[in-house]
Amino acid sequence: MRHTLAVLVDNKPGVLSRVSGLFSRRGFNIESLAVGMTEDPEISRMTIVVRGDDRVLAQVTSQLGKLIDVISVCDIPSSESVDRELVLIKVSADATTRSEIMQIVDIFRAKIIDVGTETLIIEVTGDRGKVGAIERMLKRFGIRELVRTGMVAMNRNTKTVNGGDA
Amino acid sequence: MTDTWVPDHILYLVKGRVFQLKRRKRTVTDATISGAKALIECLRDERVDTIFGYPGGALLPLYDELYDADIRHILVRHEQGAAHAADGYARATGKVGVCLATSGPGATNLVTGIANAYMDSIPVVAITGQVPTPLIGNDAFQEADITGITLPITKHNYLIKDVNDLPRIVKEAFFIASTGRPGPVLIDLPKDITTDELEFKYPETVHLRGYHPDINIDKDAVRRAASMMMQAERPIIYAGGGVIISNTSSELLKLAETINAPVTTTLLGIGAFPQSHPLSLGMLGMHGTRYANYAVQESDLLIAIGARFDDRVTGKIDAFAAQAKVIHIDIDPAEIGKNVRVDLPVIGDAREVLRLLLSYLREKQSKSGAWLEKIDAWKKEYPLQYQQSDTVIKPQYVIQEIHRACPDAIIVTEVGQNQMWAAQYFQYEQPRTFITSGGLGTMGYGFPAAMGAKVGCPDRTVIDIAGDGSFQMTSQELATVVKNDICVVVAILNNGYLGMVRQWQELFFDRRYSHTELTQSVDFVKLAEAYGAIGIRAEKPSEVPSAISEALAADRAVIIDFVVDPTENVFPMVPAGAAINEILEPEVTA
Ligand SMILES: Cc1ncc(C[n+]2csc(CCOP(=O)(O)OP(=O)(O)O)c2C)c(N)n1
Ligand SMILES: [Mg+2]
């Protein structure tokens, strides 16, 4: 099973290696990890997608919680949250395929952000399903390069991971 | 005499930038002190009376301050000794142990000792010198990324980059090391930080957003635990090192007597419950007593307190206490359900939980009567036993004689058979009287740890039960104990083998004794004498008592070389991976 964790950490050097070191040491599998500053510049937020059963999730959560630089760990259930990932895809495109690719981009409400003689760069933002679908659609044109930011997620409504639940 | 030119400043060129390293302290104004001096002030504020350390280039300014500071500094002969001594000091006293090493090799020499303290949750603050901040990351002379290296073996670690952070970081380090589930904290101290000046003020409080060791105990869970205990017919308490760390022994005694439950302890829990008590079952697990293991396997309620279900305790995990409901009392939520399913977790400091628990419990007499009778029958049927001899010294006999001569000693051990016999054949009545490397199983731990214990408890008799292999890993600390008048006794159970490994080879590898023989490698009596300690040898059983009394009467550190039966094995034994009631034991003929 896949779980999405929002981890608030002190925005200090070395925190990322503490977190990633813990995952590798204890044999937890990270599917993706995205990190950046929050509304409070002293706090960073990591969104970590892990695979594992409930026991693994409980271990990950409590082991993370023991790191001194980790302020809070919050499991974000997919049913009550939105999640997004940004992906850049460089796809082969020539005169014969370009318009077909542009149609696909339109359908997925993605964007073409660079046009070259032989390639296009496409920017897609979406949840896992959407990103996976466009990737599959573009495959036959030849994906030359693909980069993703990793999933970020947020609870719906007023609920926040820093304790606010008004 | 030729006059050598000494520059005022050492210039460093790093990444195209020029850095100056002051050779001397900056002009000191009234308001400011150096980082080195500030560190000493911090240690005094933390009531540190002793540091175990070893100097080097990166620490010169700090050692200059230590020269006339009123903190006792004990110069070890290897930094591993400093780390283990700080650990032994902490285990014997309950206070934070402090060790100090220079950058690079000094720091890496601490690593085993830090890992050892981490595995057994021991409060240690390790301070390491580091190359000056401008040089960090450039593979400078004696640079090692010790915060990176110790990331997985410290509770937390720090690299000080600004001298103004020093007081806060030291305060936090001691706080983190000693609260919650204790553990080692490392502070890496670049050389320029020790000479930089700051306006010193030691903080009174600690503000850590991500660390709150005070836990609100779930009272409902404690109430449920109480009612499970009242209803159980075959309860057993399984007490670990956490009981000792949290000073919960008297509450544990009350709990056991109130619910009439027998108590078994882990290796690290030895001393948490008086072994002369009728409810005591001694140690469980791989080399535990038969009756402890049987009792666990037949119990209907297992009450784990400050223990972590280590594989040396549980054996085959699915078969461990299979009939029992499990209550797990622990301060560390990450331990709950890590290895075994838990029916009722209670998270909190063991002492607070037990006090609350005792307030909910009534005296219970009836229910476990038959259970205790069954256990007593096992005790009678399967006592710990060995075949005594009057020609060759049996190691178990040595331990029994040490106990007879000095029942209230602090016993420290090395690792191997010696450790297990020390655990089995001495009778421990008090917490903090059995000090051993449990989680990491570090050969060479015992002697420096005994040194630390003796420094912390100078009025106690401290005896290191050693193996001939283990002792050779840190025997250089003989120089330290002699020089500093630290009167410890090292009782070497000299079997001429890496005995525990030899035992496994005998039992599981067809007696192919691959590289485990140590015979005739060293004359321990002469070794003692070379360092100015006393060396005594006992070769016959009849010499054992007098060797011990001579050692106890000595006014110097003593090594006793007990030449013991090389073929003796540790029993009972649960083979790795077997259920803990699948026990190997040789036939003992009367
Ligand atoms: C540093 C270290 N290296 C290796 C081991 C593996 N090991 C465990 S027990 C043992 C033998 C110990 O021999 P000795 O100290 O003579 O004790 P004995 O078992 O003979 O009493 C060894 C090599 C260890 N525990 N620690
Ligand atoms: Mg040996």
Description:
The complex is a heterodimer of chains A (166) and B (590). Chain A folds into 2 domains: 2-75, 2-Layer Sandwich (Alpha-Beta Plaits); 82-152, Alpha-Beta Plaits, CATH 3.30.70.1150. Helices cover 28% and strands 41% of the residues of chain A. Chain A contains 4 helices and 9 strands, in the order βαββαββαββαββ. In chain A, the strands form 2 sheets. In chain A, strands 5, 6, 7, 8 and 9 form a 5-stranded antiparallel beta sheet that branches. A 4-stranded antiparallel beta sheet of chain A has the order 2-3-1-4, covered by helices on one side. In chain A, strand 2 (29-37) and strand 3 form a beta hairpin. Chain A is elongated. The two termini of chain A are 30 Å apart. The mean pLDDT of chain A is 93. By secondary structure, chain B is α/β, with parallel strands linked by helices. Chain B folds into 3 domains: 31-199, 3-Layer(aba) Sandwich (Rossmann fold); 219-381, TPP-binding domain (Rossmann fold, 3-Layer(aba) Sandwich), CATH 3.40.50; 395-563, 3-Layer(aba) Sandwich (Rossmann fold), CATH 3.40.50.970. Helix content of chain B is 35%, strand content 18%. The longest helix of chain B is centred in the N-terminal third of the chain and has 15 residues, at 79-93. The radius of gyration of chain B is 26 Å and the shape is globular. Chain B starts with 8 loop residues before the first strand and ends in a 27-residue tail after the last strand. The complex binds thiamine diphosphate and magnesium ion (MG).
Low-confidence stretches of chain A: none
**SSE pattern of chain A:** EHEEHEEHEEHEE
Major beta sheet, strand line-up of chain B: 5-4-6-7-9-8
Q: How many alpha or pi helices of chain A?
A: 4
Domain unit count of chain A = 2
Quaternary:
heterodimer
Q: Which protein chains are joined by the largest interface, and how many residues does each one contribute? A: A-B, 21 and 18 residues
Number of strands of chain A: 9
Radius of gyration of chain B: 26 Å
Q: Bin the helical content of chain B.
A: 25-40%
Shape of chain B: globular
Strand-residue proportion of chain B: 15-25%
Rounded mean pLDDT of chain B is 94
Number of helices of chain B: 23
CATH architectural arrangement of the largest domain in chain B: 3-Layer(aba) Sandwich
- At CATH's second level, what is the architecture of the largest domain in chain A? 2-Layer Sandwich
Q: Which structural class do the helices and strands of chain A define?
A: alpha+beta
Secondary-structure-derived class of chain B: alpha/beta
Bound molecules: thiamine diphosphate, magnesium ion
